[in-house]
Hints:
The protein is mostly helical. It has helices spanning 2-9, 11-32, 34-40, 45-62, 66-73, 75-89, 92-95, 99-131, 136-157, 164-182, 203-207, 211-238, 248-271, 273-291, 296-311, 313-322, 329-357, 360-381.
Amino acid sequence: MKSLRLILSNLIYFAPSWVFSSINILIGTWILYIPFIKLKFALNDGEVGFALFFTALGLLITIPFIPKINKRIGVGTSTKIGIFLLAIAFNFPLLAPNYILLCASLMVVGVFSAFTDVSLNALTSNIEKREQQNFMSAAHGFFSLGGFVGAGIGSLFISQFSNPQLHMSIISVFVMITNLFLSKNYAFVVGDKKEKSTKNLSFFKSIKPLLVLAIIAFIIMFNEGAVEHWSNLFLFDIVKVSESKAGLGFIIFSLTMTIGRFLGDGFSQQLGSRKTILFSTIIAFVGYLFIIMSSLIFSVLGFGLLGFGLSVIIPEVYRIAGNNKDLETSFAISIVSGIGFVGFLVGPVILGAISNFNSLVVSYVFLSILIIIAFGLALFGLKKKVDSM
């Protein structure tokens, strides 16, 4: 909890942590209205998944340009601009009058989601190195807290908003105002200048040391994205709860993920990064076993275990990447977080395709298999020496 106290006592740590929260407040509010979008356009699960694919497409288009933009204007300024544009972009899907414009608007969301997420993780890593303080896991805890706030509080007031656009607009304005005030605490951060350059290396050779980390990041964020977008529909369509209770799984998932990330820096210090990842994947797998029982109590308990299990994996992966001595910190973080964020965006798409072909239960079985693969990669692909980091 030392890193949490650090964040709460100093704006240089709190300001970027609040950007993490802001991103997921927006996402958490958006996912409340996925069932609304599905009904509005009379979509099946496959069509919902295909629309979400355009979010991934926007990300894929953007990723190659992000490190160059960060280098030109600085990771702090990039983060500040990114969160403002993302807050605006999340209004477009709810304004879309037809399916084609829905897909186009989600691609815009993908562009600014990628830009903000990659820039923010690079910013956090640079602050860690500059201030000699670890707060990556706790900062990601604020991301989870944002999901809890966005979906949790949103679920309580959703019945008060007959117009979903009004709800999203209020949240967007709130995000922009708070970040306008806080951004002065990080906007000046440019990035590391004294580290090794990757100019003389081919792209493939540059990412080779990061490959296992990138695959683990892809799998874990694939799971996070899938659960964020499909937990509501799992409880609504499979468990048969009311629409007002459909957000309960994601709320508990976000709550336990928040708790896990606030404790994560302590776990990492005691166990090391590799063992922390291994134990976390086991907990996540048990969570999926409970979810697929498809009863309200067991499924919600499963979402809680899943959130706690997944919570610390991504911060640990980013920490390992940032400590790579052969690559620039900003470049390593950008590659791993960028590939991971691809997983976050394509996860909902692939889950929708599987669900449309078979069922959401089978989709969640597929997610549990991916967790087993992540366990194997951490066990055999990560060097034991990372436990000493």
